[in-house]
Input
Amino acid sequence: MSDPADALAAVAALRRLADQLEDAAVEQAMRAGWGWPRVAEALGVTRQAVHKKHLKRLVAAGVTLRRR
Amino acid sequence: MSGFKQYLTGVMDQAVAEALRDRSATVEAQHLLLVILAALDLAGLDADSFRAALDRDFEHSLGVAGVALSAFDLSPATPDPARRPGLGNSVRLALDRAMRAAGAGAPQPDHLLIGILSAEVGPVPRALAQAGVDREELLARLRAAAS
Output
């Protein structure tokens, strides 16, 4: 990774991939019946953060969400 | 200004659709270029080949970090129909450069294209290189035609 342009492009691509994977993995977990606290803990973020980021999207996707 | 404003609004609206299709959180300069390429053939490059080049660059860039896209078999998240992608920084830069290219005169559609193609780093120049397009030469040609 000697070329700075390649290294920086790799960072941008990894961020984009991580965002896509987060959306997919959170949806998969919630469809499997996981609750918000467990998803948040697994991601290493607060429950509020994961809620704020994913709730609307998952409701729109028709995922049945657990209360806790 | 109003003619260009109208043109820009039309491009931006379609670029939002491109960003959603791309599952991007923001509208970026490459989405604007995809819209422009759908209406105009540029140096033999059309929207489909540019989209394919963007995908190749994404895979290539991940590969630099040792990550293979094919290693993940998670099914993609359901797209959110209510989501409106925000304006990415590459679009702001492209618009700044378009205005600078227009100078004191009224901006034209070609100035937007010049603004987008002026970026020396980021997905647009990388994908153009992937597609075998000589960006500098194209830019020089557009600048000569626009002045």
Notes: Chain A touches chain B at residues 1, 5-14, 16-17, 19-21, 23-28, 56-57, 60-63 (CB under 8 Å). Residues 23 and 53 of chain A are 9 Å apart (CA to CA).
